[in-house]
UniProtKB/TrEMBL annotation:
Tree of life domain: Bacteria
Protein name (Swiss-Prot/TrEMBL): Lantibiotic dehydratase N-terminal domain-containing protein
Domain spans labelled Lantibiotic dehydratase N-terminal: 47-304
Species assigned in the record: Pseudovibrio exalbescens
A Pfam family assignment: Lant_dehydr_N
């Protein structure tokens, strides 16, 4: 956060407060302070960690915007083009400093553990604690390991080119579209239509499902089998070529192993060499200096474009969208973060009421969705006979396009009433006693992956139990083996532990949707999977992945009249692999009830909400964008003054996050930083509404300090509630070593 402090115009604001209006003296102080800030920007752009972070985030911005800013600084003159470039560069700087994101070396991954055998609160040891010399720890000083990977889309592009090699035509595997079912007399298509096939063609399809290649099939079924295969490949019923796993970290190595097993020939030698070179490139990038990385990326981009005919860049220059052929994860400098028994028990005690509230809200939302799902199902099957899952999903998609509102339940309405009654007398926050809502115990099995924020003055305060707890987003997920576990010592062991935990808590029947990877993200579910986009590849099968086509699943009613997914006639709960799935009614209706954080909106101002000893919602302010039109027409001292007037009028803190409908992500706004205000003004011009939310924990409550700097962070913590039939021994331990406490486990 200290980086952003360099941009604050404290002297200008002080003189404005003293004078009460803009005058020559104010303008002089502003000019001097603006020059100081421009000098600071110049020094920041000389820092290798800043330059590298810009390059990793957007090579286009690094190559185009940064030189424009540097030239303008050298000439002490900013034309409109240079000002746009400066706004772009600052947008990335505020993102680096104020957002919790796992991205390369400026958004590192760290791991902690719970030790119930230690009767303490918390202890922290970092590698930076041992750093000698003055100044803040910068960039790579906070990194202990870096690993570079090819993105899923880049690997898929290479795999497609491998499949096009004539030399591989007879030897590469064939895969049936997972949404097509092979029957005794033909194929059931994704739209449930029937495509008849003669007996010999059915035999060919059976051979394909048994893993036979073109050459093996031709020996048995003759040339006509090849004509059939070509037609089915052209119509996307069959897929020819290697499958890049969407659930494995080492997909490049697996692609190389598959090509190495192909018959000898020039194409095999060429692709083995190419993929081996990509392996070497990954290792070089992981260890390279910034200067070396730029050269390596240029070489890789040319190599990729030569091999695939595709550009190595996607979404060039767009914030959050600039995607190249690689991504990087980095492990941070935390050597040890241990939560002892006292902190563990206190976290459970504080979080428990908010989790009960969220379970009540989530269940009410799920029940509303279930009513809609039941109506759809009964229309499709008046006698209650199960229907094919794809048919139900298509019907739900058309008839129930949106999720039920979170506010359509008694717990949410009662909470909003209590908050509203206290808000008039609130000094920015209200405190609601959980007893006022008379919440019930959570009926398991339930699970959630919580975004948890701890606010404390420093580590000593946290280690003595002096902290505040904020439970933010509640993800209807488990902490799967994924990009988040890149640096775990034993990832396979972790999957085994998670699978055991699911068995112990009544969640063993969870079945996950197998999805195509999105950029860097991959998720490896330890249990049964349903496939609907990509088939399961060779190496997933080798590792024992169990999968069923979604096309073979049905939807029916269980004994309690709940709409359920059925596999082999047995009702199963659906695991929603991506956050988007929870917003998609056809999938969400087939999942277990979830935990949903309350959404309280009192209009222009909603205070911070404490529910017991846990914050459940930050303080927020909502406005139509036109209410801030004045800010979009001003600059310099006038902009600073107008922003301060606005802030003081509505009692906003100095530091907030602003979320507008024109942008996917919020931006950080410090009302004492003109560059933040310019960024806000440009956002307002493109938006119809804006919501400000306090920075909480605030800058003074960032307990993670390293090398003299203060760093924002968030924790990912499991909350798992066992089902009523689960038999959980007293000795059971959660994945990270936590115990069962107060009905929930936090691991």
């Amino acid at each position: 956060m200290e980086v952003l402090e360099l941009f604050r115009m404290q002297d200008t604001l002080a003189i404005l407060l003293e004078m009460g209006a803009e005058n020559a003296k104010t303008q002089q102080v502003y000019s001097e302070e603006n020059q100081r800030i421009l000098d600071s920007i110049g020094r920041l752009l000389q820092r290798q960690d800043i330059r590298q972070a810009l390059f990793v985030s957007s090579p286009d911005v690094y190559r185009n915007a940064v030189p424009k800013v540097e030239r303008a600084l050298a000439k002490s003159h900013f034309n409109s083009d240079a000002r746009r470039a400066l706004r772009t560069v600052f947008a990335y700087l505020q993102r680096f400093a104020a957002k919790n994101e796992t991205t390369s070396f400026f958004g590192t991954l760290n791991y902690g553990r719970v030790d119930d055998g230690w009767d303490g609160w918390a202890r922290l040891e970092t590698t930076v604690d041992r750093k000698e010399g003055p100044g803040l720890a910068m960039g790579e000083d906070l990194v202990t390991e870096r690993r570079v990977f090819l993105t899923f889309w880049a690997l898929s592009a290479l795999a497609e080119k491998i499949a096009e090699e004539p030399e591989f035509r007879s030897a590469l595997p064939l895969h049936l579209n997972p949404m097509v079912i092979l029957n005794a007399d033909g194929l059931t298509m994704p739209d449930q239509s029937h495509r008849p096939l003669p007996p010999w063609a059915v035999a060919v399809m059976e051979a394909i499902e048994n893993g036979q290649t073109r050459s093996q099939i031709q020996k048995t079924h003759g040339p006509r089998s090849q004509i059939l295969i070509d037609k089915l490949v052209d119509s996307s019923i069959l897929r020819h070529g290697p499958i890049v796993s969407s659930s494995r970290l080492d997909a490049l190595e697996e692609l190389l192993a598959m090509v190495s097993d192909l018959p000898e020939g020039s194409a095999r030698d060429r692709w083995v060499e190419r993929l081996t070179t990509w392996q070497q490139w990954r290792a070089q990038m992981s260890a390279a200096s910034f200067e070396e990385r730029q050269k390596l990326l240029e070489e890789a981009a040319l190599q990729f474009e030569t091999q695939t005919g595709l550009s190595a860049w996607r979404g060039t220059g767009a914030m959050y969208e600039d995607r190249t052929i690689y991504y990087e994860e980095a492990r941070g400098s935390i050597r040890e973060l241990t939560f002892g028994r006292r902190l563990h028990e206190d976290l459970v005690y504080r979080a428990e009421p908010s989790l009960q509230l969220s379970a009540a809200i989530g269940k009410a939302q799920w029940e509303a969705l279930q009513r809609s799902a039941r109506a759809v199902f009964m229309r499709l099957s008046p006698n209650g006979t199960p229907v094919p899952a794809p048919r139900f999903i298509d019907a739900m998609k058309g008839e129930v396009p949106t999720m039920p509102a979170v506010g359509t339940n008694e717990a949410q309405r009662r909470l909003e009433e209590l908050v509203s009654n206290q808000s008039a007398d609130a000094d920015g926050c209200v405190r609601i006693a959980p007893e006022q809502l008379m919440l019930k115990e959570i009926e398991g099995p339930r699970y959630s992956l919580l975004d948890v924020f701890i606010g404390a003055k420093d580590m000593d305060a946290l280690a003595s139990g002096n902290y505040e707890l904020f439970v933010g987003k509640m993800n209807h997920h488990l902490l799967l083996n994924s990009w988040l576990t890149t640096f775990l010592p034993s990832r396979d062991e972790y999957s085994c532990q998670l699978n055991n935990r699911l068995n112990e808590t009544g969640l063993s029947e969870l079945t996950a949707l197998q999805v195509r990877r999105r950029n860097k993200g991959f998720y490896s579910f330890p249990g049964e999977r349903l496939v609907y986009s990509d088939p399961i590849g060779r190496f997933d099968k080798a590792y024992g992945v169990r999968a069923t086509s979604l096309a073979r699943a049905e939807v029916g009613l269980d004994d309690d009249g709940v709409v359920r997914l059925m596999v082999g006639g047995k009702p199963i709960p659906l695991y929603l692999t991506l956050s988007d799935h929870q917003k998609y009614p056809p999938f969400a209706a087939l999942a277990l009830p979830w935990l949903a954080a309350p959404e309280i909106d009192l209009g222009q101002h909603t205070p911070r909400i404490y529910f017991g000893d846990c914050v459940i919602q930050r303080q927020r302010w909502s406005f139509a964008a036109e209410a801030l039109n004045d800010l979009t027409e001003m600059s310099g001292v006038a902009l600073l003054k107008a922003a301060q007037t606005f802030r003081q009028t509505y009692a906003l803190p100095e530091r907030v996050f602003a979320k507008a409908d024109a942008e996917r992500k919020p931006i950080y706004v410090d009302f004492a930083v003109e560059h933040c205000l310019v960024m806000l003004a440009n956002l307002l011009k493109r938006s119809t509404a804006v919501r400000f939310e306090e920075m909480y924990p605030d800058a003074e409550s960032l307990w993670l300090t390293q090398g003299g700097g203060r760093y924002p962070c968030e924790l990912r913590i499991h909350a798992i509630y066992p089902g009523p039939v689960a038999k959980v021994p007293e000795t059971t331990r959660a994945i990270a070593g936590a115990k069962l406490a107060a009905g929930a486990e936090i691991a």
